[in-house]
Amino acid sequence: MKDSASRAGSILVAEDDPDIAASLEMILSGEGYLITLCGDGAEALEVADAGDHDLVLTDFRMPGLGGLELLRRLREARPQRPVILMTAHGNTDLAIEATKLGAYDYLLKPFDIAELLGTVGQAMRASRTVTRRVRLGEPAQAGQQGLIGRCRSMQRVYKDIGRFAPTDTSVLILGETGTGKEQVARALFQHSRRQGGPFIAVNCGAIPENLLESELFGHVRGAFTGATADRVGRFEQAHGGTLFLDEIGDLPLPVQVKLLRVLQDRRVQPLGGSRDVPVDVRILAATHQPLARLIAEKRFREDLYYRLNSAVISLPPLRERGEDLDELVDAFLAEAAAELALPVPEMTKPARGALARHNWPGNVRELRNVVRLAVLQSRGYPVSSEIIQGCIESDLASASASGGGDFHRVIAGPVREAIEAARREGAGRVLGDLVKAVEVQAIGRALDLAAGHLGKVSAWLGISRVTLRKKLAEHRLDAIKPGEERREK
C-alpha cells in the first residue's frame, strides 16, 4: 500500500479539527495518497521544511500560525509546490488574497467529496508537471516522461522549444492526438523565465460548455444556480506563470470572444462580476484539429487564431518517425516494467516488425499503451509478435468500447481486418463496404434522433433531401414515424 501511495503522491494536511483531519485522511488515503497530518500551522511548516510532500492542504483558521501566513511561508520556501486553502468562511477578499499569495485553489467546508478529489487530483498533476523535467531527445528514466526521438522532425521541435521558451510569446502547438503536445507545453514552461510560477493546464474539450467560462475566468457568488461562493478562475490561478489551453479548437464561440478580450486587455472579469482583475499570464495552446478549416466553417475566430499563433510548433505523427520507433519502444518497456515491478522483457525481432507495420493512429500514446499491455502479458518473458498483435487489437477495442480516442483510432482495427481478408481472397470491396457501414450507422442514428423527420436528418448530415432519399433506398432503410422503430429491410 505504501508503494502505491507514494506513486499516487504525498499530501501534508494542516487541520486543527481532529474530526475533519480524520475524514480527510480517510478520503484521500482511500484514493492512494500518502497523508501526513499536522494539528497547527507551526507544526505543518516544520514538517514541510523537513519533508518532500507533493501537495499541502491547509485550514484557513488555526491557532498560532494561520492558513494565509502558512501559505506565504510555504510558497517562499518552495514556490512550485501547490497549496490548497480550506475554509468555512469563503468570501471575495479571502479568494483574492489567497490567489495573490499563490494558492492553487481553495475549498469550502463542508466538503463536496467529488470537488475535493477533483481539485486535489488537478493540483497533484500540476505538482508533477512543474517538478518532473521533460527530457528532450533522449530516453526518460523510470517514472520520468520525456520527448524521445532523434529524427529530423523531432530535432526541429527541440530547436523550436529552445527558441520560443525564453520569450513570453504565445505558442500554438499542433499535432494529432497522442503526439505529445502537453509534454511540449511542459518543456516550454520548464525552460522559460516563468518556471518558478504556476503552470495551469485546462482541457477545453473535457469541460462541459456551461461550466467552461466559469472554469477559465471564475465567477462570483450568485452568478448562476449553484454558485454558492466566489471562485477564482484558471487565469487568476496562473497569474505570474503559464496557462496551457489544450484542445483549444473545442472552445465554444462565446468563450472564444471573451478569451480574445482577455488576451488583448490582460484583464479578466469573473462571471457575474463587475470588477476587472489584471492577469500576467503566458498562453500556450494546443489542438489536433485543423484550425484553418474551423475558421472557414465559422467555428473558430480568425482574430483569435492570429492572437495565438505568434509561434507555432508542429509535432510529427508517429508513422513519420520510423527511425525513432525502437528508441521509443525501449523507453516504454523500461517505464512499464518499473511501474509494474516486473523484469524488462526482451522484444523479439518479429514483435518489433509487427510494431513497425502498424500505422499508429493513436501515435505515441497508443504505442505506450500497447507496450505496457505487452509487458503485463509477457510477465518478464520475451514479447512475441502474437502478443503485440493481441495488444494492438485489445487497445483499439478498449478505445472503441469507451468512446475514447479519435475516429481514426477506433476504426483502425476493422479497416485492417477487412484489408487482410481482401488480401487473402485476392480481391474485395473494402472501401465500398466500409463506406456503406458508416453511412448506415450515421443515417440510422440521425433518423432515430430526429424521429424520422427527413428535414432534420438532411440538415444534420449536410446533404439534400434528394440525396438522403437515394441513400435510404440504396441502404434499404425506412424513415420512421414518431414512436415507431426504424428497421432495415
Description:
It is a single chain. Helices cover 51% and strands 11% of the residues. The chain has 489 residues and is α/β, with parallel strands linked by helices. The chain has a five-stranded parallel β-sheet, with helices on both faces. Helix 3 packs parallel to helix 4 and helix 16 (363-378) crosses helix 17 (385-402). Residues 1-5, 139-144 and 480-489 have low confidence and may be disordered.
Secondary structure class reads: alpha/beta
How would you sum up the major sheet?
5 strands, parallel
CATH architecture of the largest domain: 3-Layer(aba) Sandwich
Tell me the Rg in angstroms.
Answer: 26 Å
Number of domains: 4
- The general outline is globular
Task: List low-confidence stretches.
Answer: 1-5, 139-144, 480-489
Q: How does the SSE layout of this entry go?
A:
Blueprint: H1 2-8, E1 10-14, H2 18-30, E2 34-38, H3 41-50, E3 55-59, H4 67-77, E4 83-87, H5 92-100, E5 105-108, H6 113-131, E6 135-136, E7 146-147, H7 152-164, E8 171-174, H8 181-190, E9 199-203, H9 209-217, H10 234-237, E10 242-246, H11 253-265, E11 267-268, E12 277-278, E13 282-287, H12 291-296, H13 302-308, E14 311-314, H14 325-340, H15 349-357, H16 363-378, H17 385-402, H18 407-425, H19 430-450, H20 454-461, H21 465-474
Parallel strand pairs: 1-2, 1-3, 3-4, 4-5, 6-7, 8-13, 8-14, 9-10, 10-13
Antiparallel strand pairs: 11-12
Helix pairs in contact: 3-4, 14-16, 15-17, 16-17, 17-18, 19-20
